[in-house]
């Protein structure tokens, strides 16, 4: 869901400015005015420094250098023929142009373990860069060892209204997690809400079998049974798969495909989540009694042949291949499932995947659990002279990705920056983040544009790109033509399933713990392996549902009880 920007409007804007320039318009006049502006009291150097340190957008009077630990990926490229580097490219030149700041990379490492090792080494030697990204556990270690700056004042002085608005979209939960003893120690990189899990069904198969839309667990079971027994896709006897599940873990993942979280939350179970019980104590959802009801349903469906009988030996790619080939009729996934289903449409444009938010509880709503509010945290080294640089630089990124600067700034430096973003050139040393409800906002804006109620330029560039693709899909359908698969994807993800997400009320359970305790590095992987093996055995009927009780006893003795105590101590 990473947002990319689009350059097409710049071509239009450039034409406009060129025309205006021939008529005595914008660009040349602006440059002349700037050069001839006489100095006033604000041009005093000390005042300029003070202004830069205490306001969101004011540039520094002299270049400010910051060192950084840069996260890269193995496929980083730069524009063909350029001599750009990680320290001199379209991103860094924009930051230099707007704020007069320049990065110097202390280390570069590939995302994941390689980067974590570099961060760990920097902490051990006490030579951390001025700015770096860390996880929550490392953030707390840095605070405990007084190695990073308190960013409270920098945030209060320099955070833009846009940054504050984005944090507010998730009730400031992101900032709360970065705040300790009333002090903000990081600029958190937010997570986007994944929304409700949806049941995706082959609608063309439902029509062929005259099946009604599902509402209950019994309805889902009936549809799966009809798919498997009557083979509406003509796959051949015994070859149609009902529901596919991920054998590695068929529940608990946030924003993942091929799971069945809705079946468990229907019974009040929240697998793999640390949630509060009725007394306010943290409990691990996978070992709570409510789990057995969900396991009973899924184990029964497997016994009846309604769940993929090869589930234990499939991997993610195998499952996707089943879906693409037309052998599978049902899966659970979020609103973004069309990104996975595009290949099935490309092979057969008669495919009609439909999404449903089911089964709802007695209050008529499906219950979901929320994810971690943050992906990671950007911190500033203790003692760095300009801690506000981080806040100001993030402002710039947000302005061009979530704000309006991508439309209003027609400078060459801005066009180059957007070209970098569009082509995923290089690595942005700072980067930004998005609204918690970014997917719902995109639907709202695109829908309004299609209905003629919103100027398509009154949305961020990425949304404008999606709007154009959705409009192309509608134009193709109106002409009786097969829509391009990318346009099919965007329309079904952004206008169909996102609409369902946008309009369907849901209960949201907030987990209470996303961190690690002292015992987890030693014991948690063993406990997870134990859990996943037990649950797969129950699903595939190798063990009865009653085996769940034995698993819970073993889990507690193997370290689960100790870790539960540590989690409760951590959240006090």
Description:
It is a single chain. The chain is of the alpha/beta class and 572 residues long. It folds into three domains: 52-190 and 374-423, D-Maltodextrin-Binding Protein, domain 2, CATH 3.40.190.10; 198-369 and 506-571, D-Maltodextrin-Binding Protein, domain 2; 437-503, no CATH class. It has 23 helices and 15 strands. The protein has a four-stranded mixed β-sheet. The chain has a three-stranded antiparallel β-sheet with strand order 3-14-6. A two-stranded parallel ribbon has the order 1-2. Helix 4 packs antiparallel against helix 18 and helix 19 (438-450) crosses helix 20. The longest helix is centred in the last third of the chain and has 24 residues, at 547-570. The radius of gyration is 26 Å and the shape is globular. Mean pLDDT is 91; it is low at 1-39.
| N- to C-terminal distance | 34 Å
Poorly predicted runs of 5 or more residues? 1-39
CATH architecture call of the largest domain: 3-Layer(aba) Sandwich
Biggest sheet architecture:
4 strands, mixed
Give the total of beta strands: 15
- Into how many domains do the coordinates divide? 3
Strand ordering within the main sheet? 8-11-7-12
Text of the CATH class of the largest domain: Alpha Beta
Q: How large is the share of residues in beta strands?
A: 5-15%
Mean pLDDT: 91
Fraction of residues in H or I helices? 40-55%
The CATH H-level superfamily of the largest domain is Periplasmic binding protein-like II
């Amino acid at each position: 869901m990473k947002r990319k920007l689009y350059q097409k409007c710049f071509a239009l804007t450039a034409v406009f400015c060129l025309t205006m320039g021939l008529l005595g318009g914008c660009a040349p006049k602006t440059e002349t005015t700037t050069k001839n502006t006489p100095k006033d009291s604000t041009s005093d150097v000390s005042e300029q420094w003070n202004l830069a340190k205490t306001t969101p957008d004011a540039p520094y009077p002299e270049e400010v250098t910051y060192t950084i630990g840069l996260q890269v990926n193995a496929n980083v490229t730069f524009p063909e023929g350029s001599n750009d580097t990680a320290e001199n490219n379209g991103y860094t030149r924009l930051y230099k142009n707007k704020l007069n700041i320049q990065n110097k990379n202390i280390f570069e490492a590939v995302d994941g373990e390689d980067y974590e090792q570099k961060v760990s080494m920097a902490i051990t030697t006490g030579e951390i860069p001025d700015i770096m990204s860390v996880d929550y556990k490392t953030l707390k270690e840095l605070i405990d060892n007084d190695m990073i700056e308190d960013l409270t004042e920098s945030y209060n002085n320099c955070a833009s209204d846009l940054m504050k608005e984005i944090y507010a979209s998730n009730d400031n939960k992101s900032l709360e997690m970065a705040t300790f003893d009333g002090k903000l120690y990081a600029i958190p990189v937010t997570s986007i809400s994944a929304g409700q899990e949806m049941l995706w069904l082959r609608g063309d198969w439902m029509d062929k079998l005259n099946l009604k839309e599902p509402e209950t667990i019994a309805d889902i079971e009936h549809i799966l049974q009809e798919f498997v027994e009557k083979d509406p896709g003509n796959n051949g006897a015994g070859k149609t798969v009902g529901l596919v599940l991920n054998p590695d873990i068929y529940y608990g993942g946030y924003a993942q495909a091929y799971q069945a979280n809705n079946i468990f939350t229907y019974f009040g179970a929240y697998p793999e989540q640390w949630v509060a019980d009725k007394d306010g104590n943290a409990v691990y959802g996978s070992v709570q009694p409510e789990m057995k009801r969900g396991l009973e349903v899924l184990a029964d469906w497997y016994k009846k042949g309604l769940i993929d009988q090869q589930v234990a030996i499939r991997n993610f790619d195998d499952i996707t291949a089943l879906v693409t080939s037309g052998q599978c009729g049902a899966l659970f996934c979020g609103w973004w499932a069309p990104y996975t289903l595009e290949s099935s449409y490309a092979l057969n444009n008669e495919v009609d995947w439909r999404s449903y938010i089911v089964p709802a509880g007695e209050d008529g709503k499906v219950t979901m659990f929320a994810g971690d509010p943050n992906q990671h945290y950007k911190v500033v080294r203790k003692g760095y002279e300009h801690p506000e640089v981080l806040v100001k630089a993030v402002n710039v990124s947000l302005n061009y990705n979530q704000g309006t600067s991508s439309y209003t700034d027609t400078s060459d430096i801005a066009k180059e920056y957007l070209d970098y973003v569009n082509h995923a050139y290089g690595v942005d040393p700072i980067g930004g983040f998005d609204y918690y409800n970014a997917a719902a906002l995109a639907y709202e804006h695109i829908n309004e544009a299609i209905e003629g109620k919103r100027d398509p330029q009154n949305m961020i560039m990425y949304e404008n790109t999606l709007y154009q693709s959705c409009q192309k899909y509608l134009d193709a359908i109106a002409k009786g033509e097969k829509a391009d698969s990318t346009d099919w994807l965007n329309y079904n993800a952004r206008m169909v399933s996102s609409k369902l997400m946008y309009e369907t009320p849901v209960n949201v359970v907030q987990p209470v713990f996303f961190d690690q305790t002292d015992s987890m590095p030693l014991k948690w992987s063993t406990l997870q392996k134990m859990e996943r093996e037990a649950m797969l055995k129950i699903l595939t009927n190798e063990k009865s549902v009653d085996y769940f009780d034995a698993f819970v006893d073993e889990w507690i003795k193997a370290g689960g009880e100790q870790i539960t105590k540590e989690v409760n101590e951590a959240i006090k």
